[in-house]
Design a protein that fits this description.
0% strand, elongated, 556 residues, 24 helices, disordered N terminus, mainly alpha
Length: 556
């Protein structure tokens, strides 16, 4: 920053702090453009990429565009365009990202700057790899590798070679060849160690990649060690997507090691960065980890919210990919018609078939992804339900010797006083005597192991009367020990009952949804279906379909 101001002979002390904060991005762009100084330009570039883009993507894109407009040399124009392309990549605006990169390619190919030619080719290789267009990706990777040996500047050679080896590591990770990916990451670090600029950031990214690969190899201690090294390197850096990925990786490691308190600490940090970022891939990874955490912690409400957030981001990513493919093939159609006008009928027919194929492929791909997500969710529900049923059985056996606590006589009213009203929202919980709380817990336990909750006439007041207590005590007890209000508590008991019946008895799978609703004590088909989906993430009919498929597989 001082180098940029020095072009005008200015000192930072002349500007008030609040003006600097407001005008910092625009002032930097202006100064860098006027000076056309590489150091000033690089500082602006880094600020936009590592700071502005992490919290305000529209402002970062505007600043990058301003940087391009004031740039005079082909190199600065190329770097500005590639900054914009990178920001659009983070937004998953693939068409715009590739468009800016292709424009940069045209500019830089007219020069002898092999360093940036390689970088542009490498970037395009990455984009097409993310789109799973591997032939196109391979073509650009090959062009880049051919040019690397032309770099005479040691810094340029090492940084570029390191980045290309890093791209090969990403390629192997996409193929789940994690050991090969680790070799490429370590090879790239050999070159990054020789680079004076941005060494810490490049190394932090490599530590993050090593952490990912060792995590996938289930070597969790090694993964944590690499993630911690990355955090140490980035300790003085502002929050950015690499930090977000590292925090997410640490959370994933602690989830696998069943250390949920530690996992939550890192997950909160990752979610803070992801929520503020426009980088959809980061959001996708963090929300996927959040889903895993809440499933492990048995936080049903938070699990449903995490699944919804993850699926929303996945849909956005799929839609952007589909949009790119559709736009690309539409452009191909237009160009083909112009180039081969004399045979337009034949061409149109061939392209129509191609479009139909591509559209079918896109629809099939999206449907397959959605079905995969739904089936994974189904398996998680079954696993959690089996654990729930086993826990209930163990609790029942453990308490079977104390049956006298199941019912209390009218003379043994469980209360500390004449409170009868249920608590209002935000009202503090009552303090019960330990013996009162113990008696209520006993009767609540036996209630959960009965089928009384299936009654359509059940209410808080009727259950309190059945327990010989008052509504306030019962409501407080449920909130304290079941962490939910009365209605949600009863609904979950009923849904668990139906899930168990559907699992254990094939005949129940033949019932109509309205019959299941009635059996569970719900007032209507629609209310049952809505609560079932809200609780499990699946509709009752889809859940039954997956159950039947699993049984058919076992029989086959």
């Amino acid at each position: 920053m001082l180098g940029a101001f020095a072009c005008f002979g200015l000192r930072g002390s002349r500007l008030k702090k609040n003006i600097l904060l407001l005008l910092f991005p625009l002032l930097f762009v202006y100064v860098a453009g006027k000076c056309q100084d590489a150091e000033a330009f690089n500082k602006v570039y880094t600020t936009i990429y590592l700071e502005t883009a992490q919290t305000n993507m529209p402002a970062a894109l505007e600043a990058a565009d301003s940087l391009y407009r004031v740039s005079e040399s082909p190199l600065f124009k190329t770097k500005s365009l590639m900054l914009t392309a990178t920001l659009y990549q983070q937004k998953e605006e693939l068409k715009k990202s590739i468009s800016y990169a292709e424009k940069a390619k045209t500019i830089i190919e007219a020069t002898s700057d092999f360093d940036w030619q390689v970088r542009v080719y490498g970037f395009l290789a990455t984009q097409y790899r993310l789109l799973q267009l591997y032939n196109k990706s391979w073509s650009y990777s090959t062009q880049a590798l051919k040019l690397v040996d032309n770099l005479t500047n040691p810094d340029a050679f090492n940084s570029t070679r390191g980045l290309m080896l890093q791209e090969l590591a990403h390629y192997e990770m996409a193929r789940q060849n994690y050991k090969a990916a680790i070799k490429y990451v370590k090879a790239s670090q050999v070159h990054f160690n020789l680079v004076p600029r941005n060494k810490d950031f490049l190394t932090m990214n490599n530590e993050q990649l090593l952490g990912q690969n060792f995590y996938h190899l289930k070597q969790f201690d090694s993964a944590a060690a690499y993630y911690k090294r990355g955090l140490n390197l980035g300790a003085t850096m502002p929050d950015n997507f690499i930090k977000g990925l590292i925090y997410n990786g640490m959370a994933s490691v602690y989830i696998e090691k069943e250390k949920l308190t530690e996992a939550k600490k890192y997950l909160d940090k990752a979610e803070k960065i992801a929520d503020a970022s426009g980088y959809l891939q980061l959001k996708k990874e963090v929300y996927k980890t959040a889903e895993l955490y809440h499933a492990k912690a048995r936080n049903i409400d938070e699990l449903a919210a995490a699944i919804k957030r993850k699926d929303t981001i996945a849909d956005q990513l799929n839609n952007k990919t589909a949009s790119f493919l559709n736009d690309t093939y539409s452009q191909l159609e237009t160009n083909k018609e112009k180039a081969e006008y004399s045979s337009k009928l034949k061409t149109a027919f061939a392209l129509a078939v191609s479009m139909l194929f591509v559209s079918s492929l896109i629809l099939f791909s999206r449907r397959s992804r959605k079905q995969k997500h739904q089936f994974e969710r189904f398996k998680e529900i079954i696993r959690m339900q089996n654990e729930h049923n086993l826990r209930l059985e163990q609790e029942f056996l453990a308490n079977s010797t104390d049956k006298n606590t199941a019912v209390h006589s009218k003379d043994e009213e469980i209360t500390n006083g004449p409170v009868t009203a249920a608590p209002s929202a935000g009202q503090a919980l009552l303090v019960m005597r330990p013996e009162t709380e113990k008696k209520l817990l006993d009767v609540l336990f036996h209630f959960e192991h009965s089928d009384l909750y299936l009654s359509r006439e059940l209410s808080l007041s009727s259950l309190a009367a059945h327990f010989n207590t008052n509504t306030r005590y019962l409501s407080d007890l449920i909130k304290k020990h079941r962490q939910k209000d009365f209605n949600k508590y009863i609904n979950e008991l009923r849904i668990n009952y139906i899930i168990t019946k559907l699992q254990d008895d094939n005949e129940w799978r033949q019932y109509k949804i309205s019959a299941l609703a009635e059996a569970a004590g719900f007032s209507s088909h629609s209310k049952f279906a809505a609560i079932f989906k809200d609780t499990t993430g699946l509709s009752p009919s889809l859940f039954i379909k997956y159950l039947q498929q699993e049984e058919d597989k076992k029989r086959g």
